[in-house]
Specification:
Radius of gyration: 35 Å
Strand content: 35-45%
Number of helices: 12
Shape: globular
Distance between the termini: 102 Å
Amino acid sequence: MDGMNRNNMGDYIPQEIPVPEVREDRNQRQQNPYGGRKKSPAAGIIIGIVCAFATILAVGIGVMAYYRSMPAYKISKGFYNLGREIEQIQNPLLEKLGLAELLVMMQEEGSHVETKLNFSAELPMIGKTTLGVDTDYKKDVKAKELNASTVFSLMNYEFAHMDIYANQEVFCFSLPELFLEDIYVDNENVVSQYNESILADVAGESTLEDFSIELFPDQKEKISAREWRNLSAMLERFEEDLESCRDGMTIEKVEKGLYRVILPGKETNRLVKNLLDSYGTVYDAVEGGQNWNDYKNLLASDISILFEIDNKNRIESMILEEPVKVMDGEFSLSGEIFLLGEQRSIEKIQGKLIVENNDLERAEIVCQIVQTTGEEKYRMDLDLKYTEGDDHGKMKYMLDCDAAQDEIEMSFSMKDKKDDLGMNLKGTVEDYEKGRSVEFDLDRVEFTMDGSEIYSVAGELEVEPLQGRIEPTAKAETGLFKMDMGDWQKIILQLDDAYGRILEYLW
């Protein structure tokens, strides 16, 4: 650069440029109307404003530089970048089909689902046998009704039918071949109904906790699949819980690139429980299975996490510094996650989880997830190994989608000292309307044990918007738990008339 040279640090510094001598000419000075006058007040004000602005700018840059180096900024920026990466990882085939929108439609409006599946297996002394199961399923979320009709066939011969209808008050079903027509169960307090029926006298009372059939959860408590996919929307939904966690947390720098965050146990426990409760309604989950509300404190201690963050504000690892007490203190949890992807950190994730109970019994899980994305392709590989006492095993999962060919492949395997189970799926999308309907051809699903096929499934599945009102195929006429001994004897006699000596083998 002309007129410039460099100092030892490589910065440019100006050279001293000679100024030519200018002789003062009286006539010239007289011709200059501003010559010899003082600067105007306006010029001084402008210069002062410029100096003040420059000072403020310099201070602002200094404050920003200081803030950017603060632990809180590094942590928040790291999670912001992580959230962007999660939203950027896309499966081109699922995006093409508009699967997220399709799930929202099914969740918020309802749908019409038709399946035609053939289950094939090699049976002893019979040979290759095919069981057909055709289902026509309709659900109207706004009217809070659903109906399903299923036909069972063996070697293309229909031998059984089942109809189901349900709303907020009752669950109805019909099994014509078993002479059970238009039977219903009240949705409230199912266990209590059973224990007060004649069935409890014959088979014994149930000791299960009472429950109700919840097929239509309150929409106000639901979170759509779209929201779960959008991290920023989720954070907004739980802003109050997050604010409580923020107020109680501490953030500090341990050393260059390493930061410690301590989350308050009570507030974080409330956030986690609310997240789990909301997630349980995304796919219209029915009550049952693990109830997180059985535990007062899912998280029973503060959580200290070490974050490793690079100079681009990307989180490289998250490590639990101390074991966390969980499930009312019955277990302690340790773990670590490493984000090792190159273009996006979440493209390769490795982690370890250790669970230990109060008797020092220990289980350990080591997992790796690799995601590969392309213009028309997406693949995910999951490898997991676990150890629990003397038992150990491993699981593998693979999902491969090709948007150009409208094909999907999936495989799953699980192996331990007792079992070696596997599943392989291949299918093709035949037709679709993005976010509204899809027809899927299930070429083959193969289930194996110890390397040998147990059975396979092939068929078709179609999802489309619900058209018109639902017409019930089963009605609430006879209460299952209100039937007396005479009602059951009548059914048994009808079965004996219809199927003869078959009942002798059942009793």
